[in-house]
Amino acid sequence: NAGVMQNPRHLVRRRGQEARLRCSPMKGHSHVYWYRQLPEEGLKFMVYLQKENIIDESGMPKERFSAEFPKEGPSILRIQQVVRGDSAAYFCASSPRQGPNQPQHFGDGTRLSIL
Amino acid sequence: AQKVTQAQTEISVVEKEDVTLDCVYETRDTTYYLFWYKQPPSGELVFLIRRNSFDEQNEISGRYSWNFQKSTSSFNFTITASQVVDSAVYFCALRDNFGNEKLTFGTGTRLTIIP
Question: How distant is the Cα of B103 from the closest Cα of chain A, in angstroms?
Fold first, then answer.
């Protein structure tokens, strides 16, 4: 299966720890998007990246959250000093090119739980 | 700014009944794309359909059909002869054309099919 791969599927952290979520896009895809789904809510856009560049981070919280998509390796969403409110499902999507007609293929998500 | 409204939070129908999920959207753009995704209890996001704003023909795929009406800014989804496997949360989403790569999601409709 050459779909979007996210790991881990489930992640448990204590308050104050760091959480690192990984996303490997589909083969040939160089555009990555991160979305957050709070309990009982729809998905909210966080950040859009191309290889080595952040294109749109308008949905990222101003503090503690960062994202990268290096030349080699997966995209990483990093949350520092996690708090209870960070508990959510984090979805990654990828597309082959820019453009609203390009489909975004989603991974299965990472469920982050903060104790 | 874009907005997607799914007014029905939860719907329950008895198996084999037809059910329609409503989606109303707002956008200033003349070119945009509309999507439906299914999120079963296992949590992954399953792509169902993409429709561009220039194509107002209704679409049918098996038991699924979509009614796109630009005049009322609606993109409704009907499941005919519902089955228990259709139980899921369904999300409508919008993507516009002016360099804005993100998907804007509605809050979802939880559909329960009662056997």
Answer: 7
